[in-house]
Amino acid sequence: MNLIDEAREWLRRAVSSGGKARIKSLALADSDLEALWSEIKYW
């Protein structure tokens, strides 16, 4: 598993635990997750 896949999995877990809008907002503000921003925008 590469780092992008690992980040995607952790984000999926966070969203499934609740607070989807908050997690999305935090993820889009985190420059470490920039590679996933185009996916996250469509959650």
Which class do the helix and strand fractions yield? mainly alpha
The amount of beta strand, in percent, is under 5%
Give the topology string: H per helix, E per strand: HHH
Spans of at least 5 consecutive residues whose pLDDT stays below 50 are: none
Mean pLDDT: 93
Question: What's the number of extended β-strand segments?
Answer: 0
Helical residues, percent: 55-70%
Number of helices: 3
The biggest sheet amounts to: none
Outline? globular
- State the end-to-end distance: 22 Å
- The rounded Rg comes to 10 Å
Brief sketch in words of this structure:
By secondary structure, the protein is mainly α. It has three helices and no strands. The model has no long low-confidence stretch (mean pLDDT 93).
Please, could you describe this protein's structure?
This protein has 43 residues and is an all-alpha fold. Helix content is 65%, strand content 0%. The protein contains 3 helices and no strands. The protein has helices at 3-16, 20-29, 37-40. Helix 1 (3-16) packs antiparallel against helix 2 (20-29). The chain is globular and about 25 Å long. The model has no long low-confidence stretch (mean pLDDT 93).
